Structure formats: structure tokens, C-alpha cells
Structure prediction request, 290 residues.
Amino acid sequence: MCVIWGIPYLLIKVAVAELTPAVLVLCRTGLAAVLLLPVAVARGELRPVLRRWRPLLGYTVAELVVPWFLLATAERRLSSSLTGLLVAAVPLVGVVLGLLAGSREPLGARRLAGLLLGLAGVASLVGLDVGGSDLLAVAAVAVVAVCYALGPLILSRSLSDLPALGVVAASIALTAVGYAPVGIAQLPARMPGADVVAAAAVLAVVCTAVAFPIFFGLIAEAGPVRATVITYVNPAVAVALGVAFLHEPFTLGIAVGFALVLTGSILATRRAPTAALAGQAPRAAPASDR
Prediction:
């Protein structure tokens, strides 16, 4: 899972060289929906999800519709390495949203220190690696981080008792339908290169359709708390792939920012022993790429 959800940044960077963000989202969700919907229907897991369409729609917008478009848009300006590291701030945003939503877990000195360290890491990334012309792209990734933190909040409060595959298949299908008009209108006049086609296909099949069942299996075997370790490793995979395959520079900002964001996220999100023992494996899980 660390690899599967660490490679989308590389694949998105390759794909947006010839595809618009809307076309890429349509390709990714359309193919994934074709693979997942029949399975969800055959298992009878789709109908109960559709009955609760309002929170499903909110989750879909927060977890897929907005962030996947903005990620593709931002990576037209930013490196895949930097984008992956900025998205690594999601756990920090999640802590803040949890506090605003009335989380029972107190902030405490350790969590506050984690938030401050994570903020310093993001500041070092932006200050050392981002030019003035790329600030809008950074703002787009910031919105992505908020969306990725908001989606699980909606999921846990309104959809966690529903079949996981049904939630995933329905949200992916809704995203594909929503992007179909714009995506079809923006289809390229000629067939994209083989690398672009391969990147879009891997995003759809491996990073979306295959990823969710594996993640649910990981939660069932290792538990929800230990399964979140992948959140801390994904950025390292994104940086390694960007440097190795796209020859992106490994800068001082990336080195310092990664260390601070990673340390801050661990401190801010680590549960107390009693909270960890009380954790229950959810039936549905967020799509953190993601």
C-alpha cells in the first residue's frame, strides 16, 4: 500500500503532459468504475449506499471530485516530489478538523508540538522550493489536503456502517459521471503517447480499483491504527520515484520539509494507548492517495 499510494504523484505528472486534469480524472474513475461496479452490484453492496445519497455525495466531492482535479492541475506546475510531500500534511489538517468538530481527544503538548513541527515543514518546503509563480499551485495542494482530511470525517460520521466496496464503487462512479461532459469535450485530438496511456491505466486499475480491496484487507489484518503507517511512508515513495524516474532534484527544502512533516504528523496523530486499544476497524475507509 505504501507503494500503491505513493506512485500516483509520478503517474499524474506523466499523464498531465498530454491530458487535461478533467480528462485524467475521467479516465481514472471511468475505468475503475467499470471494474468495481459489477462486483459491488453482484454482492448487493450498492443499493444500501445509494439510499444514503446526501452524505455519499458530500464524501465524493471532498475525497475525489475536488482533490483529484486539483492534484492534476497543481502537478502541471509543481514536481511530483514536492506535491507528494505537501499532501503529507493531511494528518495535520485532520487533527485540526477533528478539534473543530469536537474531538474528545485533548490537544496536549505533544500534539501541539506535532502541529507546529508539521507547519514548519510545510513552510520550509514552500519557502525553499517554490517560486512566486507557483504559489497558486501550492494553494491548490493545500485545498487537496483539506479535502483529504474532510472526506474521512464525513465517512466516519455518516457512512462507516455501510459496505466498503459499495461506498467506493458508488463514489468513483459518481465522479466519472460528473466529469464525463467536460472530460469528453477535452479529449485530445490524437492518441496520447504510450507512457501517458500507461500512466492513466495504472492510476485507474492499480491505484484505484485494486488499491481499496487491499487496503481493507490490511485494516482487517493489522488493525486501523497500524494500517495508518502507510500515510507516513507514501511521501518517501513519491520523492524516490520522482528523483529516480523524472530526474527531479532532491533539494534542501525536500530534505528538511520531509523530516519535519513526518515527525509532526506522527506526534500529532499518535493515539494514547487506551485510545489505540479501543479502536475498531471501519467497514469503509478513505481513499488516501491516493
